Amino acid sequence: QKEVEQDPGPLSVPEGAIVSLNCTYSNSAFQYFMWYRQYSRKGPELLMYTYSSGNKEDGRFTAQVDKSSKYISLFIRDSQPSDSATYLCAMKVQGAQKLVFGQGTRLTINP
Amino acid sequence: DAGVIQSPRHEVTEMGQEVTLRCKPISGHNSLFWYRQTMMRGLELLIYFNNNVPIDDSGMPEDRFSAKMPNASFSTLKIQPSEPRDSAVYFCASSNRRNTGELFFGEGSRLTVL
Description:
Chain A is mainly beta. Chain A has no helices and 11 strands. In chain A, strand 4 and strand 5 form a beta hairpin.
């Protein structure tokens, strides 16, 4: 079993829809949770970062962490075609430098 | 500001040939990471350096893979001899944020071994 599980999709939704992306993990020591966005033929770039449990909002994006369920989510409101990309969750243990990535979910927003 | 710079962007080679991938991290970043991305396995950490010193190379798949960081502004990942299963996109990332683990990735080197 992988440490971090993420449905690779692909996921296709119409413009304006609310998108929900999710990851589950098995290592209860993970404390830092991140979402990276990767456009085609580009490197991943950090989108959202959360420490421990709770919610974090940034514009149309909301990241949620539920440590009791070992489950993290990224919500995108009012989705735009420019949001079409692969979204990767990543997490790490406090004090460690190694990030463990999910497989990535390929998302397409249709105009 | 310049981001992480990788070269070459694309490399096509034949099985058995030596491949060298290069990376220039962001100036002032003291950690450098090499990742490999494939459809089947996603992003895998191969090795990372702190202050030019290799810290964890447990992700390097075989002795055919080696990485060096001779100074703060340059790193190489070498595969010798290359095999078709090494075909992947290789990313270099740098960081100066050890606590949060935020990484800044280059655009990758796409390697195809025939």
